[in-house]
Task: inverse folding
């Protein structure tokens, strides 16, 4: 059971604290602003008002006992650097910092932060990637150059058996799962039916609205998508 | 070939424009600040200085010709609302807006924006989820309640054949792919060898450092991870 400190309760810090709590984790929430501390008080394990650049104050609230500290105290790089360094000096095993710019992030990495998060850049890149590949629902990079892609079954395969599509032969891409949109038994409650076929058989019939999970090299996946 | 307008070249807008261009897309970049326009000028198809709340100016630069507009002009909700409405009235088929708070996002949804992005919340939730499930490298939600998870092979399966692990029998989870860390032929260049086995056979030997791609219901995946 790991304990987390979230230092700085802006939108990012607050969402981190909320999600950790929703995932059953213990959270120590810290902010210099008493209103922020009060707003989150009922949600987290402990909420404490504290100037995190004050080393003695951080020590006094027991930051040395946490396993992970997330530092998200806004634009001022000096303050972030100070807080990160203090956490590390007090022995916090893992320190993560939010940064606005890559320049600031590099400074934080130089002083040894374990991970830097760039919210605007990361969500922008995800959005742009999704916009550039609109037929793709989700994408995960398995290892360098190998992707896992979720996409609606292309119209030309509708009505075919999986083996008739010859997707693997033509594209070197594997259909790892099929999400059925149809063929559900109306007499059985929806949440008791398996909508996902984890182990597609060659004789599965592909229907309109089905979703395919594909695994393959990125260029093969791209070629598959372009040719639909 | 879709054309994109990015209105507002803060960190988010700039990263959207850069990523779209990197993905081969046409980008019209717009900002009221001439410095921002100049900085991005070499990268995008067109960069234009313009007050996006000025309907005539937006029309004059041809916003009605784009397929997708991404609006990321900062904190002022009134300005964002105005720009979103103008884009929609001028016939832009898809309008996406960045928002800081869920409250602002709801206003934008009410006026018909097709999608709202919350960079701080979304990246915070991703970080927190990753922190709460540290043995998981990547996670994708296939459909509600069904996940695709990438994780290192648990120590107790090292040295076993895939079928000996009985992962499917015990956990109702499918091993959809295995990323080999070993067993590569040192005489063959790395980039010519297939590190990923898309179609794992029951007789594959699992080695230390291998990575498994698992598909299953979330509660089964969680149980699998907890029991390792
Ligand atoms: N020295 C400090 N010690 C503790 N908390 C601090 C300190 N300095 C700033 N904070 C808190 O950090 C929080 C985040 O700061 P701010 O809202 O300026 O940053 P932000 O990075 O823009 O936030 P967001 O996460 O919304 O993007 C605020 O609640 C602020 O009170
Ligand atoms: N009416 C407008 N028309 C065009 N551009 C505008 C307008 N108002 C603001 N902008 C531009 O939008 C950009 C983003 O604004 P700002 O940096 O305030 O927002 P932000 O949402 O905090 O950005 P970030 O993406 O870095 O989080 C700025 O470059 C600004 O010049």
Result:
């Amino acid at each position: 059971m790991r304990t987390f400190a979230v230092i700085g309760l802006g939108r990012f810090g607050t969402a981190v604290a909320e999600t950790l709590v929703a995932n059953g984790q213990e959270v120590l929430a810290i902010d210099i602003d008493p209103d922020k501390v009060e707003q989150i008080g009922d949600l987290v394990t402990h909420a404490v008002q504290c100037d995190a650049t004050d080393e003695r104050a951080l020590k006094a609230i027991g930051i040395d006992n946490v396993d992970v500290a997330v530092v998200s105290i806004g634009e001022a790089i000096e303050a972030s650097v100070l807080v990160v360094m203090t956490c590390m000096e007090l022995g916090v095993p893992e320190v993560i910092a939010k940064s606005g710019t890559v320049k600031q992030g590099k400074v934080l990495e130089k002083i040894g932060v374990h991970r830097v998060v760039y919210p605007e850049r990361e969500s922008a890149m995800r959005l742009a990637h999704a916009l550039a590949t609109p037929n793709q629902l989700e994408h995960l990079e398995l290892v360098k150059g190998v992707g896992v892609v979720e996409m609606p079954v292309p119209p030309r395969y509708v009505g075919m058996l999986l083996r008739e599509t010859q997707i693997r032969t033509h594209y070197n891409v594997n259909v790892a799962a099929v999400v059925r949109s149809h063929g559900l038994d109306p007499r059985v409650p929806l949440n008791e039916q398996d909508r996902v076929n984890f182990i597609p058989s060659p004789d599965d019939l592909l229907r309109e609205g089905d979703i395919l999970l594909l695994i393959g090299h990125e260029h093969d996946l791209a070629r598959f998508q372009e040719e639909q």
